[in-house]
Design a protein that fits this description.
heterodimer; A: mainly alpha; elongated; B: mainly alpha; Rna Polymerase Sigma Factor, Chain: A; 8 helices; about 65% helix; about 0% strand; binds zinc ion
Chain lengths: ~60, ~190
Amino acid sequence: MLNCKQATALMSQGMDKKLGLWRQTSLRIHLMVCDGCRNFNKQLQFLRAGLRRFPHRNG
Amino acid sequence: MENELISFRSDMLKFAWLQLRDESSAEDAVQETMAAVLIGKQSFGNRAQLKTWVFAILKNKIVDIIRERARFSSTGAALEEIPENAYDDLFDERDHWNADTRPSAWGDPESSFSSQQFWKIFEICLTRLPENTARVFMMREMLDLDTEEICKELAISPTNCWVVLHRARMALRLCLDDRWFNAGDRDAEL
Ligand SMILES: [Zn+2]
């Protein structure tokens, strides 16, 4: 089973490329049981949204 | 059109500087962009469309400058800027989150997008990323290049490239958490 450190690494990697099925599944299971990593995952998505919007922040 | 371009200038300079970390290169990128827009003479229905177009050109100019630079310099430096053990304290001996570092919910973070103050903090956090780390990260997230392209441009291995991206995300997440989402006094940070 994944620990949180490994899970954060996989979540970050998943932002850049598609994870293999096994990694994807172990991550999914970790996220089901770990609310800290669930929050981390949402926050990574938010960072990306923020960075995309950054040039347009002043209208 | 010219007035609008002038009104975008300061945002353009900041955007270019975050990636190039050098005022004269940022200035070059912005001026070349303005020239390209004026020569292009496209017409735009509204300001937002024009701004999107202008930034698309600016992104290309920035990538050109980074490519040019990569030819002359080694950018392996990115890997050493944030050390490998920088985030070890977040985890316990089993590598699970410590009680006080476990990420807590940010609520409805998108609502911060309408806050000027949020964007100031966001910019501060981006500025605090070390130079080469920032370059790799921005190429990925702001210029929207894929990691393969970035590794190739900067001549770093895919694994190292990805490690740099991960550390940049850790740093930015912690900074926003500290200074905005879980900040006791947001004003104190400005
Ligand atoms: Zn976890």
